[in-house]
Amino acid sequence: MNIAISNTSEKPIYQQLFEQISAQILKGELESAYCLPPIRQAATELRVSIITVKKAWEELERHGLIYTVTGKGCFVTELSSDDMLQKRNDMIRMQMIIDTSYYKSFGLTIEEVFELLKEVY
Amino acid sequence: MNIAISNTSEKPIYQQLFEQISAQILKGELESAYCLPPIRQAATELRVSIITVKKAWEELERHGLIYTVTGKGCFVTELSSDDMLQKRNDMIRMQMIIDTSYYKSFGLTIEEVFELLKEVY
Amino acid sequence: MNIAISNTSEKPIYQQLFEQISAQILKGELESAYCLPPIRQAATELRVSIITVKKAWEELERHGLIYTVTGKGCFVTELSSDDMLQKRNDMIRMQMIIDTSYYKSFGLTIEEVFELLKEVY
Amino acid sequence: MNIAISNTSEKPIYQQLFEQISAQILKGELESAYCLPPIRQAATELRVSIITVKKAWEELERHGLIYTVTGKGCFVTELSSDDMLQKRNDMIRMQMIIDTSYYKSFGLTIEEVFELLKEVY
DNA sequence: GTGGTCTAGACCACG
DNA sequence: GTGGTCTAGACCACC
Lengths: 121, 121, 121, 121
Known about the structure:
Number of domains of chain A: 2
Largest interface: A-B, 31 and 31 residues
Helix content of chain A: 55-70%
CATH topology of the largest domain in chain A: Arc Repressor Mutant, subunit A
Largest sheet of chain A: 3 strands, antiparallel
Oligomer: homotetramer
Low-confidence stretches of chain A: none
Structural class of chain A: mainly alpha
């Protein structure tokens, strides 16, 4: 569990959990069929509520990144590299649509976006 | 008042108001010393509560984009083009720091970000 | 009329008027029996509402600093230097009671107040 | 909650709340990471509206004196004694600039201010 | 007329 | 349970 949680962030904790674990899965850091720790253990480790962990796991399952075997645990779905790349890009693109709409509202051209992004990155 | 409000959006209404108006000011669409509509009128027009409008206006004032004269109304602060560009870029950069941290968590290089961004923009 | 008005200040304009004129009177800058400008003229000069000027003049009269002769104008009350000093100190002391209660709430001793005041003055 | 509220004061209630609590924090009366009472409870105790409390809390947060964890509560920011002294003096100095401008308008020297202040304190 | 403040009461997301 | 948001409606000071 290599997770960093910020209690003060505006992002809900379950969302932080979901984002970080899905990123790890899609980067290939968590192998296929890897068994996630039981939610109670994860909750203890991360010092968050069980409900919070459960919500994050559900979100992962809804995105097809893990599957639950009742009584056994939660396992990382087996995905081909292509599928992983596909899913990764889908998730990023979805976020980018929101991000760019913000930039556009300020009248930025894509060149200006690149310029500023380079500074920040 | 050229404002679009989404009641279903996850973003609070006052935040939407703030973002859109600040964008309009920093794009130069609202001239210096322009008098914003009275909060009660704005609230009626936009079909939101007075308090929601007030909260947005307060945020604008806190960012130095407008100033309030009690009993008279709220006016757009006079800013030089340089100041406006500065403030605009500050606001965007602030958002970009959040955006890029998300991209980075997926292990994307800046080139990959540009690639995907170009598709979306 | 040597008056500076701030529209953005939190202090109401009539209060600003009252404070500045009473200060001028009690500093002896406005001679006894000096005739203040008619409220309409003052309002035009200062670019404020007649009502605002009237309110300030009323406040001055209530404090015994001017007196009104209907149809003739408003005149500075004749005061001995002692009376002036007395009134001046009364006004300042009244304000100081409020000011010091704020300092005290932070647990400041009078020595610390002096220290900080010296920096600011 | 050792707070005294004056409904007759010219100062808005949320401002009174803010001033008294910030003073308590900066005097070290409220320990770091101390959890403020829930806004609803505070509102009931103090017999004011929830919104009034919330506004005061927001002001405290904006000044970096507390931080909010949604769903958990509001906590006093951990500050070093130096930071606390710094912030305390900043707040007082800010007020003193206003206070002294009033004294100055009467032509008072700093010695005269000290003299009168000593009487009042 | 304007904004400033306060109230009571509701619904939601998060933990 | 917590805070976050939104609503409708009221009263006040100022201009």
